[in-house]
Amino acid sequence: MTTSAPVVVSRSTLKRLPLYLHVLEDLQRQGREYASCTMLAGKFDFAPILVRKDLEVTGAKGTAKIGFKVVDLIRDIKEFLGWHNVQDAFLVGAGNLGKALLGYKDFELYGLNIVAVFDADPRKVGTRVFNKEVLPMGRMPGLAKRMHINIGIVTVSADGAQAVVDAMVISGIRAIWNFAPAPLSIPDGIILENARLTQSLAVLSNNLKRTLQSE
Amino acid sequence: MTTSAPVVVSRSTLKRLPLYLHVLEDLQRQGREYASCTMLAGKFDFAPILVRKDLEVTGAKGTAKIGFKVVDLIRDIKEFLGWHNVQDAFLVGAGNLGKALLGYKDFELYGLNIVAVFDADPRKVGTRVFNKEVLPMGRMPGLAKRMHINIGIVTVSADGAQAVVDAMVISGIRAIWNFAPAPLSIPDGIILENARLTQSLAVLSNNLKRTLQSE
DNA sequence: TAGATTGTTAATCGATTAACAATC
DNA sequence: TAGATTGTTAATCGATTAACAATC
Q1: Which nucleotide is closest, CA of B56 to its C1'?
Q2: What pTM does this model have?
C-alpha cells in the first residue's frame, strides 16, 4: 500500500467547497442529520453531479439513497481544506479593509486566527483595533520567525504591497493572502492568493452593462 | 451591416481584465505610451496568448511589433466592463465590511458610486460612516425606485441576507453584489455576484496544507 | 419492492494553448 | 531587413456533464 500523496484539486472545486460548508453548518444548527448532493446543488443552482464530484475529492463517503451524514461531511471538508487546524496569521495594513478583517469573528471556523497587526504608518502604530495593538512594521519579521507564522495577510495599498510581501517572505511566511490591487512577484514555493474585490465587481458590471444594453 | 449584440464572455476573462487595467493605469502614471501582451503577461505569469485572447473581447486593436496604446486600451477595457459610466449603488449593512467598502475611494474608477447606506439596526441608523448617514431599511425601497438605483451591495450577516435581497429586488435593483456567506435565491433576470472571502481563503488554505504535508 | 442517491467510467463542452501568416 | 508582436484558425487540455450500475 502506498502513502496517498496530497491530492491536487482544481481552483473551481476548492472555491465551491466553502459554499457547501456554510450550508452544511446551517443544516447542522437546524438539527438535520443527512444532506444529499441533489439538495446542496439546489441551493446554488448547480448540477447535482457537480456537487458529487466536488465532494469526492474530500474523501467523504455517502450512503446511496440517503446522502452524506452532515457532521462527517463538515469534518471531511474542513480537513481537506486544512481548516481543522487553525493557523495563526499576521495582518499588515491597518486601514479600513484590514480593520474589517480583524473584526470578522468567524475566521476561526475557517482555520484562520489573526494574532497580530502591523502598519508602516507611525500614526497608526500603538492604536488598538479590535483589542489588538498595531505594531510597527520593523517588528514583523522577528515576531513571525519566533512565532512560526505561516500566513500573511496584505491589506496595504498597491504601492506598498511588494515591499510588504518581500518582508513576509524573508520572515518565513509561506502563504500570502493579498488584497492589494498590484501584481506581486514571489519566489517559487511561496503560495500567493489574491482576493481582489474588483475582479468580482468586473463580472457584475459587465453583466449589468449587457442587460441594460439589450433593453 | 448588423448591430453587434453584446458579447458574452467567460467569467475567467472578465476577472482578468481588471488585473490588466490596474497595471495599465500604473503604466499610464509612469508615462508609458504602449504596452504589449507579452509584457502584461509577464506581470502575472500568464501565457502571452491568454492576454491577447482576453483583450480581443474588448475590441481593442493593437499594432504589430509595438503593442497596444495604453490610453486606448484602458478606455476599451473600461468600456467593455461598463466602468466608463459610473453607476450609483446602495449598500445595506453598516458593519465592518460595509464601512470598509464605503471608505474605499477608488470605486469611482471602477464604475461604482455608493450613494447611500442602510441598516436594520436602529442603533446604527443616524450614525455617520465616511460622511454618509446610515438610513433605516424602510427607506431603501422608496429611495431606490426614485433614484433609479441599479446596483445593491449586501454586507449584512448570512441570516439577514435573503430579506435584504428580496427588498432590493422589489425596489427595482437589477444587480446585487453579495458579501454574505449565504446561498441567495433571486428571480430570473436579476444579476447576482457573490464576493465571498472564504472562497479565496479555501484555495490558500488547501495549498498551504498540501505544502506543509509534503515536507 | 421501487426509487432516489451514490460512485465511477465515458462523453462533451469550453477555456487555454499552439501554430502561423500578416505586419510594422 | 529582421524580429517582435498582433490577429486568427486549429489543437489540446481540463472541467463539467452524461450515463449507468450498485445500493440502501
Answers
A1: D7
A2: 0.95
